[in-house]
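Inputs:
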Amino acid sequence: MSAAKQRQQNLDALMQPTSVAIVGASDDVVRISGRPLRYLKESGFKGAILPVNPRRDVVQGLKSYPSIAALPEVPDVAMLAVAAHLVPESVRACAALGVKAVVIFSSGFAETSIEGARAQREMQQIARASGMRLLGPNCLGLFNSALGFYGTFASALDLGFPEAGGVAVASQSGAYGAHVAYLAQQRGMGVRYFVSTGNEADVEIGEVLLWLARDPDVRVIIAYAEGLRDSRTFIEALRIAHERRIPIVMMKVGRSARGAGAIDSHTAALAGEDAVYEALFREYGVHRALTTDEQIDVAYACARGVYPRTRKLGIVTVSGGVGIQSCDAAERYGLDVSPMPASAQAALKALLPYAAVENPVDVTAQALVDMSVLTTSLATMLQAGDYEALLGVFLTVPASRPFAVPLREAIAKAAQDHRDRLIVLCMVADADIVRSYEAMGFLVYEDAYRAVAAIAALTAVRESYDRGLGPKLAVQSAAPIGMRELSEHDAKNLLVEAGVPLLPERLVRTAAEAASAANALGYPVVLKIVSPQIAHKTEVGGVLLGLENAAAVESGYEIVMQRARAAAPGARIDGVLVARMAPAGVDTIVGVHRDATFGPVVMFGLGGIFVEVLKDVTFRLAPFDEMQARGMIRQIAGYALLDGARGMARADVDALAQVLARVSQFAASHAEDIESIDINPLRVLPEGRGVVALDALIVPRRADANPSSG
Amino acid sequence: MSAAKQRQQNLDALMQPTSVAIVGASDDVVRISGRPLRYLKESGFKGAILPVNPRRDVVQGLKSYPSIAALPEVPDVAMLAVAAHLVPESVRACAALGVKAVVIFSSGFAETSIEGARAQREMQQIARASGMRLLGPNCLGLFNSALGFYGTFASALDLGFPEAGGVAVASQSGAYGAHVAYLAQQRGMGVRYFVSTGNEADVEIGEVLLWLARDPDVRVIIAYAEGLRDSRTFIEALRIAHERRIPIVMMKVGRSARGAGAIDSHTAALAGEDAVYEALFREYGVHRALTTDEQIDVAYACARGVYPRTRKLGIVTVSGGVGIQSCDAAERYGLDVSPMPASAQAALKALLPYAAVENPVDVTAQALVDMSVLTTSLATMLQAGDYEALLGVFLTVPASRPFAVPLREAIAKAAQDHRDRLIVLCMVADADIVRSYEAMGFLVYEDAYRAVAAIAALTAVRESYDRGLGPKLAVQSAAPIGMRELSEHDAKNLLVEAGVPLLPERLVRTAAEAASAANALGYPVVLKIVSPQIAHKTEVGGVLLGLENAAAVESGYEIVMQRARAAAPGARIDGVLVARMAPAGVDTIVGVHRDATFGPVVMFGLGGIFVEVLKDVTFRLAPFDEMQARGMIRQIAGYALLDGARGMARADVDALAQVLARVSQFAASHAEDIESIDINPLRVLPEGRGVVALDALIVPRRADANPSSG
């Protein structure tokens, strides 16, 4: 068996063990070393439970063994609940015995000291050499509630074991993961898997997500991450989850500078730039949750498994006010509260003469006197209104027990012929009443705004599935550009080869050559100094614009040469570029930088104040195709300027998309040897006339920036 | 007694009655006509309770009277729970008897039909003539829980009466108001007053807010509105609340076009433009809540009454992950998670060798083993860190009952010497445990993000109090401009009088005059056609720029005159303006429009794409002073362009603020006769060089735009 396959099978064993050892097992059922054993006993785990404790024969009523080597069988999983300095020795013993996976609760490793980091690396090497998997250290463990396997000391389990529903929780932070799993449980969701990865000496969050995305019982994944080491497996997990239509609702913290700083000291993981995560999540339809509430709200909605096919939202309300609030929320989240067809409105008006019947339909208190009115209103909206999602606002009505059952039945009757529609209720009631509504297939939220936000999130997930991921582009291999500095001319030549259009220009080395080049290109022309040591030509006066004739070009040549020599004495000067003045258009910026986690990332934005003051830019991982580039272009706030705002001609967005895609593919081919690319401005001409790069800079990757090659 | 004083006293009686009649009282304790009586009996209302029902002698065990006229005493308040067509007659009978206020539950008035609107107007006239106050119709009534006065049929009261704490709820929507009052109660807040105003035939939301803002027992007001009729009383309420430091947490719905449409059909109230509300709320420190959760969260925080003096936030956490999440939230909401002083860090590091101690302080699981570590950590942050607000992240720890009391005591011990600080906990536990923490003065939130948002809201309230409201500017009376159309020249003259600097310019009527004016002003100059019928001069070719000498000016004069005559035959042409070309600067726009609800509103923004594509503008009600104008200028996203971004000179923001304030005062003086003002562009020159208006348009208010004068 290959090592990779071995590691995969051992990961399976970690997630679904048939026998479990607890090293350092304690009789004290409150301590970290006592709790997992108690949970395993109480939850009815069917496999062998093997305590290891040299000082006792029996722990919590089970026969205990003096050492790992003395175990009567080789367990699938060994949990290590021992002091940090004893952990490496236990890991070695487990590997020697052939244990498939160990879970290390102990802290005091890479997160605390250099010695700790050394011990962690040592354990990592044992794991790599043996194929044994290693969860942690400094983690809260994992559970698989369907098997009653609790390899964790999460104290929230004292409040009850979760049901084995379709929800999985994967978290780098144990405390947060346990918190969100508990909240999910409280919200009535069945949490089947919980995995906390801690310091990630071996098993990383990406691999866990990939495993969960492939599991047939998982319907939605709640994830939490601070940073990634292995971005490839993570992206693969997003791809598989997208293919299998398993939504991921993810909290990625560290957006803020302060938060990112805290990450560094916390897990020592590499935090990729936040905007890159944002781009990645958008691409793969991952719902990024900012708050825990949002994460629970959206996961709860996803667990229902009904994803509206359109953005049309119907609203039935007992309160005009909350109806309006819901409309405001719909606008904010991009849902469409379009009116019902006139005939349906007329039918409802006959039934509810005093009510608003357009959408929202305000059924008023009358519907509560005669519940059949409510049923008819809801059924009319579903049938004639054809709303894919229906929000019913009932506030505290079902909290009154005399109303709870008739209201539920009235809604259920309207919904019975529309099982494919999403029915969401805004209501407040005791938990047992809420559960009885959920059992009929309705989603229940207390807050109308949050209900609308969740509906919009489901719609976005559906749209992401419908859109698909686009082709997985093969990266063309390219000859490395080397580590030398590149002049503008060199950079432009590379980009021209890559398919980026540039204005015709000539490199000249005398004033006379400059004039004859200008005569050939046509006036007016621009002159620019060319030197690898002068990156910012304008600042040294190395650029002259709008020269109208040969005499001006000749004297201009001397001027820029003098200025360059004065500003950068000793710099190598390759000559002067003569170029035709560019036609008018909209200036944009295309940039590439090498993200430490994800590799080359393409940035796009409008030029000038849009980038510098408003930061109106968007990102995407390279490579991508033209269709994906077009989506990227539409994301910027100033897109209207390209689309013919203010009476201007529509810009050539097709050509722009083509060039963006080409740059992304070029960047991907040079992932290892280009640090950054800056095409600024890339001028977009009116529709049908293409784009043209007016300036370009390529910074090669310096040898010292790549420790692995050093 | 004056009529106004009478109405005021009768409003007092409505809010604090000593005797109550229920007209149409029923034995059925579930019906609208039976519930208020039941609530009054069960709540122990001390005053007289007088059922009126011609068909019964006894209702719910109380003696009933056959008619309003037959009542043995004149009640302070009469609730009308009768069919819509019987309401006007009852209102008349109440007024005849001298009842101080009536509450009308019935619907079927202005919200449903023209006849209903007529009946409502009739009742309104009875109320105005008699001084009797009228709440509703189509409302859910009101309550005053301190008196046990329940003049409402809100079914949520079946679940228990609220405690008479410091929270007041005022809502145009009865259903929403009752919903939010119930949620406030569930969150442990004591709701003292609840008032729903329904159709507002007499008592409006502004008057209710004003009453509540003056009440000595109210500490925070939760408000809900869809639109306003009487904006003056509303603004007065905001002012009094601000002076008395009673925060208002307000939901104003109808931001979206669809929502505003629903308002029209719902209450027929006038919806002011949303941005104007936004400006007003900012000015008066009103917290605008978008969601019900947010409204409850912030009101709950305000009820505690501790408002941090600075934006510094300290964080102590048992989860590194949620610590990072809290940093992200702090950045989003503008709080400052600055590190502890080095000495304090060193002290904590000795105690927590494995923990992050900068801020957030990650106490890890160790603090739960030895709670004194937690106490020391918290006390150090409060003392040495000097954080005005401290967030403690404990997640599910206190949910485990063995931890709940020791954890609470450990926090309380740290806090005991810092009663003036705000201590907010992020935790999940059963309600009784949460209440025991709150009893120690701690605020409790389940979600860290929401906790941080609430802390930021408290800080903003404090900042608004510290900033003050600025002077209440007296509006200068001004001679009306009349209803005639104004040419650019007339408009500019008016603005020059108001103190808006304009470029020196002359109105000329011949080519020769034009040339001599240009000679006097200096070159280059601009020519512009002047005609009251030609508003958009550029479009007809009526503007020529950059004329360099007398000959160009003379021929230019003929050109613009010809173009104007061709484009607008028969238009009155007053001549041509000759002006010096403006110096370079940043172009801004200053506009004024007359909001239907609030009167003149000033808009400010940067010119060009900033206004047209990015809608980067800000609003403020006129009049205001220079300091307030400066605040307004800083609100736009593109402010950096005025503040010296991209290496440009800093613009003359002082001069800009002065002109904005002058325009606002001019607009306020002409509130009744100017419809709109458009100064576009107002060019802001480099610091110390002032501003200059390059173009200006004033549209007088047309007679037919003012129904009350027609």
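The first strand of chain B starts at residue 19 and ends at 23. Flag for discussion at group meeting.
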